[in-house]
Amino acid sequence: MMPSENHSHFSASCSSVTEEARAKINLALHVTGQRSDGYHLLDMLVTFAGHGDRLSFAPSQTDAFTLSGRFAVTLAGDGGTNLVLKARDLLREAVGALAFPVRIHLEKNLPIASGIGGGSADAAAALRGLMRLWGATLPKETLAALALKLGADVPMCLESRPLIARGIGEKIEPTPDLPALAMVLANPLKGVSTPDVFRRLTTKNNPALTLPRTGDWIAAIAAARNDLEPLARQLVPEIGEISALLQASGALMTRMSGSGATCFGIFASMSAAEEAAATLHGERPDWYFQATGTVSGGA
């Protein structure tokens, strides 16, 4: 517990803070090598959806963590292993006395283990939200290093804007000219083990990601790859089925995100994406379909 005089932090100026944990979409994922420590080297074109989880933070007498949302029950037994709590504890260690007790609420709207960075996005949102609540400042490099301790995807999610990531995900380059995209996220609600997918990789040194600057981003994305998709389809055949459903619904292109099993279809407009999501939900109410727009690189 903190000394009682520090409870002066619990003033009206410390009202609750909310952070969006946007879904991370791998528009392309090329496996380009493997380090001696086993980590795979990747080239990724990443964007972030408007849809995601939501976290709220408020001063409290003691630390607390609560859950709600469609996929909350999946995390209910996660306890101290939840990345949000790990982020809180790491940041508290870094900022010291500023870090008064906090109540964190996670609204879990994204499927678990689905290749769209849900846990990593939550951890990054926790870092952003707690920095604001605690009135803390850290050098950008320090915060990025702390994010990387939480997972290779967390530095990307800390940015939550279109980017190219290389290495194991820590070498980040903004992509300011990537436009907003209308898309449908689709998942058969079957988890895919990322280690299982990577274990199936037989070719580790695939061609690097190159993006021709033609101005036609849909064509450029379509010309890229997700080297994990064929492997994930072997583990979860529904990925092929869900991709075909998106294509048949009018998607300009479809691809799996990350290690799966979430696929995305890019549509010509948000109205087309919303119509497709509604139709697909009607056909397969047991699966996950979500129309969303992504953030633009210039935002």
TrEMBL record:
ATP binds at P111, I112, A113, S114, G115, I116, G117, G118, G119, S120, A121. It holds the Pfam family GHMP_kinases_N. It catalyses: 4-CDP-2-C-methyl-D-erythritol + ATP = 4-CDP-2-C-methyl-D-erythritol 2-phosphate + ADP + H(+). Signal peptide: none annotated. The active site is at K24, D153. InterPro entries: GHMP_kinase_C_dom, GHMP_kinase_C_sf, GHMP_kinase_N_dom, IspE, Ribosomal_Su5_D2-typ_SF, Ribsml_uS5_D2-typ_fold_subgr. Pathway: Isoprenoid biosynthesis; isopentenyl diphosphate biosynthesis via DXP pathway; isopentenyl diphosphate from 1-deoxy-D-xylulose 5-phosphate: step 3/6. GO terms for molecular function: 4-(cytidine 5'-diphospho)-2-C-methyl-D-erythritol kinase activity; ATP binding. It is an enzyme of class 2 (transferase). HAMAP family: IspE. Catalyzes the phosphorylation of the position 2 hydroxy group of 4-diphosphocytidyl-2C-methyl-D-erythritol. This is 4-diphosphocytidyl-2-C-methyl-D-erythritol kinase.
